[in-house]
Amino acid sequence: MSLNINSKIASCGGKLLKCTHDSVATKTAMNVNVYVPKQFYTAAKTSQKIPTLYFLSGLTCTPDNASEKAFWQLQADIYGFAVVFPDTSPRGDNVPGDPENSWDFGKGAGFYVNATTGKYKENYNMYDYVHSELPQLLQKNKDIFEDKIDFLENVSIAGHSMGGFGALSGFLKNLNKYKSCSAFAPIVNPSVVPWGTKAFGGYLGETSKSKWDEYDPCTLLKNTENPDNKYKIMIHVGTADPFLEKQLKPQNIVAAAKGTTWENAIDLNIVDGFDHSYYFISSFVPAHAEFHAKHLGLI
Ligand SMILES: N[C@@H](CCC(=O)N[C@@H](CS)C(=O)NCC(=O)O)C(=O)O
């Protein structure tokens, strides 16, 4: 399938490509933004391709929120990685949303899982979309990216809130795929918090707890070996985040890691005074960029 570029916007030293394409996983058109860093335009073509960071956004977001407010572009230019900003759900008149029309389920809230229930399973396959279909599609579009960007192998993943959950879950389920994972104010234990139980109940079924375990980072940690303690996960969350106690519960992932091969792998930073917004995210994007750059072999 082909990628249609709707606009190409100069940003920092590179270009932000706002794209649309048809998706097999969601059976809808999907929007995605791709930041192509300055190295793409300035460096000579070598065998060393530009690596990619996938950034998964949170509830209510489109690809534009992080593109406009996280300031990844400045960091991408410093180290030389591309950034892919996927959408958070399928969209369109034929896609079912939240029956109560709220913002924490349905459109804008796909939760990066493959739905198995009733009317949602047709379109809400964001797990397959983000971790498989989208990277392959980007890699195939050699006319646009000239085979200079590696969207498949030298890649890392990060996310915010629901997207922080999506990054942790996708990373732990695909340890051979991603070089590193980081999260901003992630929902670390969706099976026990209101946003997560609503999403898992709706997309996976109220009684299908074994399916919930397949996605919950706190369970995945216990069932996934961290070979030679190779992988580290960086997390930041603010003390003034209104969702901290009820929805995020970051201490749960540290507790889950205790006694496992992940025990010393979770770098949880509770940062004083920061909230849940992009003011918080953009403040710590430089630290996360440096973390990923190291794991992608850029420094
Ligand atoms: N007040 C927010 C609640 C949801 C929220 O805070 N969403 C976070 C992710 S969980 C976000 O990134 N919102 C969009 C933004 O700040 O640009 C809304 O209704 O949009």
UniProtKB/TrEMBL annotation:
InterPro entries: AB_hydrolase_fold (IPR029058), Esterase-like (IPR000801), S-formylglutathione_hydrol (IPR014186). It is found in: Cytoplasm. This is S-formylglutathione hydrolase. The active site is at residues 161, 241, 276. PANTHER family: S-FORMYLGLUTATHIONE HYDROLASE. Keywords: Cytoplasm, Hydrolase, Serine esterase. It holds the Pfam family Esterase. Belongs to the esterase D family. Serine hydrolase involved in the detoxification of formaldehyde. Its EC number is 3.1.2.12. The lineage of its organism: Eukaryota, Fungi, Dikarya, Ascomycota, Saccharomycotina. GO terms for cellular component: cytosol. It comes from the Eukaryota. GO terms for molecular function: carboxylic ester hydrolase activity; S-formylglutathione hydrolase activity. It is an enzyme of class 3 (hydrolase). GO terms for biological process: formaldehyde catabolic process. SUPFAM superfamilies: alpha/beta-Hydrolases. It catalyses: S-formylglutathione + H2O = formate + glutathione + H(+).
